[in-house]
Specification:
The structure is a homodimer. By secondary structure, the first copy, chain A, is an alpha+beta fold. Helix content of chain A is 48%, strand content 7%. Chain A has helices spanning 10-22, 41-46, 66-74, 84-114, 125-143, 156-165, 179-189, and strands spanning 2-5, 27-30, 54-56, 62-64. Chain A has a 4-stranded mixed beta sheet, with helices on one face. The interface between A and B is medium-sized, with 32 and 32 residues.
């Protein structure tokens, strides 16, 4: 398998973390999203939506969408519960992450970290940060009664939500008002096989 | 089970359509999202993210996020493939729907249909419609070579993408440039057990 990725991407990091924690080897190729390297005809043939991460399987099939990729990798492992309701709850938090969290936690970080200081997209920040705080408050409320997001143990729901939450400050979010969330970040970072966001994989293997 | 819903919601419609096609009975209660009926303390205790649809199970557990709800309902049925890769591809399109499609196809419809003509949110329409056209083009390209989104048969991926695509014109999208997509809409609407978006369920049962 080969993962097309961008090192600073939290969505890519979800896949790298899952691969590492499951002990799965995978080739790794970085694509510079800031220079359009995911919008070339050659890349669009792999993922017509023009985004990393994309996982190319040995038969050439290419799987897109970070949360679908980690589901593919982790089904049958302890990261995906066997119970039908718990599995749906993992997906619930993963869809929450993509719809109510990522655009308001990850996108501000992208704007602040990668766009020019005078980018017109800075005008989006007040609204995005307000919605981001709403998402962080939903997480804080849940974690007041739970150690992890689903089933009181570490699952893909935690990986999906950790990826951009733990670097939310880089987009202008202040995590001080969320003590339960900060304690959960520490619990995730102490899981076996944890690796940090910016740990560059060898080109030959993520493991 | 009881579904908290809003009749005009495409996200709610995904659940109604799945229930109908699987022949599952379910109580139904409408919440007026335009009057804040999903942001009351009583509703937030069910879904802290304050959104419909939410499915309350017989033990009181409440499941949120439309795509997680239909996954819960349909696992083990023909709407979710048995094969691991096909299952991940269904999820790929469902995450595509929530991240790259819904905000740019459903939200314009909400702005046009439910907000005042002088709402400041109308200023969002040009950008949202442009991104929506990109999502529709990705679908059109895929459907040029496929009858359905995954495995050449009707799955949850089709239900998730159909819900807002078939009413995209109500938000200002023109589907004329997407002939493969329009043919696919017809194929979905001819599936056994199909029901239209605005078919109001009896309060006692969706079936």
């Amino acid at each position: 398998m080969k993962l097309y990725d961008y090192l600073d991407s939290g969505n890519g990091y979800k896949v790298r973390l899952t691969l590492a924690q499951l002990g799965i080897a995978c080739d790794w190729e970085e694509r510079d999203i800031l220079r359009g390297a995911t919008r070339t005809p050659e890349f669009l043939a792999r993922n017509p939506n023009g985004r990393i991460p994309a996982l190319e399987l040995d038969d050439g099939t290419c799987l897109a969408e970070s949360n679908a990729i980690i589901w593919y990798l982790a089904e049958g492992s302890p990261l995906v519960p066997d119970d039908r309701l718990l599995r749906a709850q993992v997906l619930q938090w993963m869809f929450f992450e993509q719809y109510s969290h990522e655009p308001y936690v990850a996108t501000p970080r992208f704007i602040v970290k990668h766009l020019p200081v005078d980018s017109p997209r800075r005008a989006e920040l007040p609204d995005r940060l307000e919605r981001g705080r709403a998402a962080l408050a939903v997480m804080e409320r849940h974690l007041t009664a739970h150690r992890f997001f689903v089933g009181e143990r570490y699952t893909l729901a935690d990986i999906a939500l950790y990826a951009y939450t733990h670097v939310a400050d880089q987009g202008g979010h202040d995590l001080a008002p969320y003590p339960q969330l900060r304690a959960w970040l520490d619990r995730v970072a102490s899981q076996p096989g944890y690796r940090p966001l910016m740990a560059r994989p060898a080109a030959r293997a993520v493991r």
